[in-house]
Write a structure and sequence with these properties.
By secondary structure, the chain is of the alpha/beta class. Helix content is 37%, strand content 18%. The chain has two domains: 193 residues, Rossmann fold; 65 residues, Helicase, Ruva Protein, domain 3 (Orthogonal Bundle), CATH 1.10.8. The strands form two sheets. A seven-stranded mixed β-sheet has the order 4-3-2-5-6-9-7, with helices on both faces. It has a two-stranded antiparallel sheet with strand order 1-8.
Length: 277
């Protein structure tokens, strides 16, 4: 069917890539998998062959109707695939996890897969992060440049607020990259699949999620400026910023892109001790 560019529709047509995405989630035999943006159902089919159940969340009503035909369900022969016609940004991961756990005598955390629409990649990632208590791992495809930022390490040019924020919710690893020819219609960019294991680090690093994340955004506000300058721009006096940097053993000329999450946590704690974070 014709694609809708405004919805970021580029359908994956590479069978080997489809299998690699499904396999990257590991053992799914007893799992309910959430698929984001199933499109024409290529990845859905691979997931359904491996998982106990698939909840395929599709915003496009025409695609959702086609998917219901592709994965029919009747009382006598129920399908493993349920089509949820909804924006993933409104999807309730906690409710899905609770439903999956019924009858198992305990809670469960869900695996997630998806080819994310480029135009709302960051909101989707933040929605997944916010639902970390209900999600175990995610294998996601995004624009290569975005994946490079997500998986970047301190000191690299791609390391920034997106890297730090996503990695605060668990380790990430790049798996493989696909050319435009793997999709119909071909996008103008390469796409990278990465794996994200949801294991938040806030307690480990002794920081508070509600204030640490805004602190990271302020620290990276202007990457060309030093961290000290960004702190001052956030309303912290020069003397307080200098004292906090010294207490955290950070070079006063350092830029945010050079700092590890552990070092950011030490700086947050220094500022917190002075009532500034």
């Amino acid at each position: 069917m014709p694609t809708k560019p405004k919805l970021g529709q580029n359908f994956l047509r590479d069978p080997r890539a489809v299998e690699r995405i499904a396999a990257a989630l590991g053992d799914l035999s007893s799992s309910t998998v959430i698929e984001i943006g199933p499109g024409e159902g290529a990845i859905t089919t691979a997931l359904a062959a491996r998982a106990a159940r698939v909840l395929a969340v599709e915003l496009d009503s025409e695609l959702a109707a086609l998917l219901r035909v592709q994965f029919p369900s009747t009382p006598d022969t129920p399908s493993r695939v349920t089509i949820v016609e909804q924006s993933i940004l409104h999807f309730d991961f906690a409710a899905a996890a609770a439903a999956a756990a019924e009858g198992e005598g305990g809670g469960t955390r869900l695996p997630v897969a998806g080819n994310l629409p480029y135009y709302i990649t960051s909101p989707i990632l933040l929605h997944i992060a916010a639902a970390h208590a209900s999600i175990d791992r995610a294998v996601l495809m995004v624009q290569r440049e975005v994946a490079d930022r997500i998986t970047a390490v301190p000191g690299s040019s791609d390391y920034g607020v997106l890297s730090a924020t996503i990695q605060m919710y668990g380790p990430v690893e790049s798996l493989f990259t696909l050319p435009p020819s793997a999709f119909v219609p071909p996008p103008q960019v390469h796409s990278t699949v990465f794996r994200w294991r949801l294991a938040p680090r806030f307690a480990e690093l002794a920081v508070e999620e509600s204030s640490f994340l805004p602190f990271l955004r302020r620290a990276f506000a202007q990457k060309r400026k030093t961290l000290a300058n960004n702190l001052r721009a956030a309303g912290i006096s020069s003397s307080a910023a200098s004292a906090a940097l010294a207490r955290a053993a950070i070079d006063p000329k350092a830029r945010a892109e050079s700092l590890s999450l552990e070092t950011f946590a030490a700086l947050w704690q220094a500022l917190r001790a002075e009532g500034l974070a």
